[in-house]
Amino acid sequence: MTTAPAPVRSGEPEQARPVPLRRNRDFILLWVSAGATALGARVSGIAYPLLVIWTTGSAGSAGLVGFAALLPNLLVQLHAGAVVDRFDRRRLMILCDLGCLAATGAVAAAVLTGHLWIWLLMAAAFAQGSLAIFYRLAERAAVRHVVPVEQLPQAMSGNEARTQAAGFLGQPGGSVLYAVSRSAPFLFATVSHLVSLCSLLLIRKKFQEERTEQPGNITAEVREGLAWTWRQRFLRNGMLLISGTNLLFQVVSLALIVIIKEGGGSAGVVGVVTAVSGLGGMFGALTGSWWIRRVSLRGMLIGGTVGWALLVPLVGLTDNPLLLGLIFLAAAMIGSITNVAGGIYQVTVTPDRLQGRVGAAMGLIATGASSFGMVIGGFALDHFGSTRTVFGVAAGLGLLALLSLLLPNADLPGFPPESDPEVTAARTPVVPAPAGPAAGPETKTPSAQNREK
């Protein structure tokens, strides 16, 4: 995570240049905290369907647990954004870690004592998913307060690489831990949240600007964030497109486990495949800035959707772990690149006071329907088999690829859309004053693999 020397901001003396990110204590602590939380979530996230499928053999039951884990994207997201914008973000993240620690600890205890019920797994998964939304929105909004504006692109690329690394290590790690002991993944996740909690307690800087206005009606605030997001044509249409891909990739992710199990593979094989896909995500994150300089944001979304539509049919034609790993590697790389580009665009056009609510509105639009993907996937896999289910998903992605051609144009930060006065005006609040806080938090658009899964 090295950075090139940043230009001096207007009104700042030469000696006020920011230190490299690797020497920014608070950023590193925040980066480690979010990384530990993401790693714990990935380890426990892959363990839930493994536990259900290898214990009961029912893809439908696994789909119900997956539905509970993703349902907060639909029910919790909007009000979570309003809470993030009105309360102390650091304290909120601490409470989230404590709650996740309790949820994963309860599942580990249930497995160890042999008292395991589907409803308990659903409740724990729902709690984890809900708290993860609060944590994610608060962390995104916090980045701009620990990183100078000049270093924001590097910080966001580093954060995306961190998320991909968590997937690279967490998903295969969860599979391996599950092979060792059914409770091990949940015990590991509990320790990860404890590490995250300790890192947060060591951070000195505040995660938000001082609020001069009194909090109003929370429903009105939610409406304000949703209305602002809906007025941004590219954000709105792009998130609706990604919503469809996220829903369909929930089906593909569940199908992957079933395909490997039907082919005689173990939970460890699932981990290997997801590890390979994690490499693709890391490569995409590290090359994101290269693509941004050469391809328009609209072009990235169109190309990404077309790429996914071409890749998914291949999943239904093989149960070879190596080939499946390469397919998911390419899909994850596409998603990671669009995450970096879309995050830079969103953070530049959003005022600080709306960061939580806009992030929540985008998340609702993009991932709100994803929970139904697990239920649909479980039903389809039980009744139609993995091959026909995957081909059905491929047909849906092909339709979305055609619809992506209707996306409007959007300029990336550094190339302001002069023809769009609303977006140009929205940029104004994030221009740094000489004595003010640094700009924009990291945000990311949901992608093919829906990184929070």
UniProtKB/TrEMBL annotation:
One of its GO terms (molecular function) is transmembrane transporter activity. It is found in: Cell membrane. GO terms for cellular component: plasma membrane. It comes from the Bacteria. Residues 416-453 are annotated as: Disordered. Residues 444-453 have a biased composition (Polar residues). This is Putative multidrug-efflux transporter. PANTHER family: INTEGRAL MEMBRANE EFFLUX PROTEIN-RELATED, MAJOR FACILITATOR SUPERFAMILY ASSOCIATED DOMAIN-CONTAINING PROTEIN.
